[in-house]
Amino acid sequence: MPYGYQRVKLSAGDVIWGNTTAETSGWYAVIDPDQAEVIRTRMVAPLLAHKSANFVAAELNTAGVPTKFTGRTKQGEAHSGKWDSTVVRRILSSPTLMGHGVHKGEIITDADGVPVQRAEPILTSQEFDQVQAALKSRAIRQSPRDQSTNLLTGGAAECFYCHGPLYRQVYQSRNVTYFRCPNTQNKDRKCSYKNIRAEKLYEYTSEVFLSEVGDLERQDKVFVPASDHTEALERVKVAIATVRRENELGLYEGSPDEYLHRVQRLVERKRQLELLPAEPARFEYRGLGETYAQAWHRMSIEERRGLLLDSGFKVVAGGPDLIGHHIPLDIRYRVANEGHIRKLSREEHRKLIWEYAERIGLRELINCDRCGYPAVPEDAYNGLCGKCHRDEEKR
Fold first, then answer.
1. Which of 31, 34, 132, 316 suits 213 as a labelling partner, its CA being 20 to 30 A distant?
2. Could you give the residue ranges of the DSSP H alpha helices within 224-255?
3. Tens of pLDDT along 271-305?
4. What is the phi/psi pair of residue 194, to 5°?
5. Residue pair 320/160 in contact by the 8 Å Cβ criterion
């Protein structure tokens, strides 16, 4: 039984989870509350906060959290019963966390190609995808000389030319540290990057990050799971797209009538799910009560690196004379809307606001009654943009 679940014997008609009931008497997989809590709070949460699988395993061992491996190995040897990064990665990489049936590492699907739901999901598909992306990003091996904690490792700095991560390299004989791009030694795709002294990148990062976003309040991006059948609807949509693609490529082995019946069944399932009340999974931003600058000044180097990664701020460099940065759209929007740095012209401001509005699906903006700058309606107060509203409150 996968970690996070337990086997429970149920009778026909017993509730497995939600509105799902057992069709026959037998053994079913149901969520183990304690193990599911370990997955959500002690594994997924730190991983999404840019901690490594090794860190997660060490914290589990320190807290005395039991594993499922307290017995003996297949060879009859006593198992250590300790967590390690391999076990953590194996648990978090398994589609069983979404409640899917899995056989030999492959998701089991029904006759229509829809994943078979064997149990209540511990993670939604969106959460699962986030975890896989985090595991993949942490799987990038750093060079032997880049193991120490520093500000710009782990994806906080990337190469301007090839977009790969920059690595810190120490030249002890000269007592100097550089940031380099490993692809400069790649024969297949030679990169034009030139090494940059670490102190120059550190100074640039600190100065620009604080000047650009330092006055903004830090926000935590919180995932709010779906309270409807959004996940099931998404699986059916994927199955429809897959079967149509198979047919277009000539990979469908059934008859034309079988193909049509399969598509009709899927479309009907899709229509039934679309009729149900909808409140899809989403992200919400919640204020943390301090600005980025306040957090920066109280944090250690490692914590500052986490702050950069959480905010999405990234240094982009190609050499000593080619250093820039990337600020995510939502941060740039907040800077413009909240008016901490009103450096943009009205046209530049409007272009940025429209870019953000299109990203979140809005088709209409309003103009502030006082300054005339455009604003997203939900961020306006009595006809005023965020900055003018705050100025009004201060009077």
1. 132
2. 230-248
3. 887 776 666 556 667 788 888 999 999 988 888 88
4. -115, 135
5. no
In this structure, are strands 314-319 and 157-159 parallel, antiparallel, or unpaired?
Answer: parallel
Q: Does the pLDDT at position 38 exceed 80?
A: yes
Please, are residues 191 and 183 in contact by the beta-carbon 8 Å criterion? Answer: yes
Residue from 195, 191, 192 nearest 180 by CA: 195
158 phi/psi in degrees, rounded to 5: -135, 160
% residues pLDDT > 70 (the chain): 72
Q: Which tops the pLDDT comparison, 223 or 63?
A: 63
Angle at 240 between CA 237 and CA 242, to 5 degrees: 110
Please give the Cα distance from 133 to 287 (Å, whole number): 25
Q: How far lies 88's CA from each of 17, 39, 72, 84, in Å?
A: 26, 9, 19, 6
Tokens (6 digits) for 204:
């640039």
C-alpha distances (whole Å) from 349 to each of 86, 166, 339 are 48, 32, 11
